[in-house]
Automatic annotation (TrEMBL):
Pfam families: PadR
Compositional bias per record (Polar residues), positions renumbered to this chain: 195-205
Cell wall biogenesis/degradation listed as a keyword: no
SUPFAM superfamilies: Winged helix' DNA-binding domain (SSF46785)
Keyword terms of this UniProt record: Coiled coil
Region Disordered, residue ranges: 184-227
Domain Transcription regulator PadR N-terminal: 12-95
Protein name: PadR family transcriptional regulator
Length: 227
């Protein structure tokens, strides 16, 4: 499995843990509310869903509302499919959520993990945040060393671009320092005690107002009528 496929599966399982969804709603949440993924096609999403179904982590159900049941026959279309997380899928997602290895520190992986921090225990959040900070500090050190070696050979625009990249990394390190300090103090970013248990991920797909570095919104597509 590629890293990006693994991130997509993780995000799909996390969103479906909140509530069952149609494929269209899932794609919209991945592109907008969650903000981890750039716009991607149903040709990417549906193979992922089929794999999760085959693994026993999701089940497919007909559209659950009376409108779904009536609209499809009248329009000569198939009913929408709703995807629901199974007990095994929930257990698998919680296992993924507890992992704190080096993969959790990479750019896209970290963004996906951070989006579900509201469902993550404090000790896991701390390990991921500290791992991400260490990874960026290493990256920043290499960028500074590279700039020092090549500064005299760079034109002004290339030099400015490298400085911009360094400033972006420095900003994220400062942001991570603030998050780590808040976690150590036992409070969330709104300043209220969060206790030992994770905050619930709200239904809008945001993470309780937590900022997300590098988040972009995708564009919506016309409502789907099939699976």
């Amino acid at each position: 499995m590629s890293r990006r496929s693994g991130i997509l599966e993780f995000a799909v399982l996390g969103l479906l843990r909140e509530s069952p969804m149609h494929g269209y709603e899932l794609r919209k949440r991945l592109n907008t509310s969650l903000g981890v993924f750039r716009a991607f096609s149903y040709g990417t999403l549906y193979p992922c869903l089929k794999t999760l179904v085959a693994n026993g982590w999701l089940i497919e159900e007909p559209g659950s509302t009376p409108e779904d049941a009536l609209a499809a026959p009248l329009a000569g279309r198939r009913a929408k499919i709703v995807y629901r997380l199974t007990a095994e899928g929930k257990e698998h997602f919680e296992e993924l959520l507890s992992q704190t290895g080096p993969d959790a520190y990479e750019d896209e992986t970290f963004a996906a993990r951070f989006a579900f921090f509201g469902q993550t225990s404090r000790d896991v959040r701390m390990r991921v945040l500290e791992g991400r900070r260490s990874r960026l500090e290493e990256r920043l050190e290499k960028m500074r060393a590279s700039l020092a070696r090549t500064r005299e050979r760079l034109d002004d625009y290339t030099l400015e671009l490298q400085r911009h990249g360094m400033e972006s990394v420095e900003r994220e390190v400062r942001w991570l320092n603030e998050l780590i300090e808040s976690e150590r103090a036992g409070r969330d970013l709104k300043g209220s005690p969060s206790g030992g248990s994770a905050q619930q991920h709200n239904t809008s797909g945001s993470t309780g107002g937590l900022p997300r570095p590098g988040v972009t919104s995708g564009t919506d597509s016309p409502d789907e009528t099939a699976t």
